[in-house]
Design brief:
Layout lengths: L1 H21 L3 H14 L15 H26 L11
């Protein structure tokens, strides 16, 4: 299980790095955000009407939160013009 967590963290880091480079291109950044908002992020009119969210709706909310977090991290990194520290090798 720990291996999966590390793999996901590495993939997220790569994604943030790629997106932070794209965030410097206004047209590309707008297009990425448009696609994600239209395709993946739950819109207000699609909200689950029940008091307790369904499993699918709860999952979609978690996905939406992670997408927003990745986009915010990429945007912040692009604004800083910084990159993360190089990973240390165990070898």
């Amino acid at each position: 299980m720990e291996s999966t967590e590390f793999r996901l963290a590495a993939q997220r880091e790569i994604l943030v790095a790629v997106l932070s480079a794209l965030a410097k291109n206004d047209d590309a950044w707008r297009e990425i955000n448009r696609i994600l908002e239209e395709e993946l992020i739950v819109q207000d009119h699609e909200e689950d009407p029940g008091i307790v969210p369904s499993e699918a709706f709860a999952r979609q909310n978690a996905v939406t939160a992670e997408i927003s977090s990745i986009l915010q991290d990429a945007s912040a990194r692009a604004a800083r013009g910084a990159s993360p520290a190089a990973p240390k090798s165990d070898r």
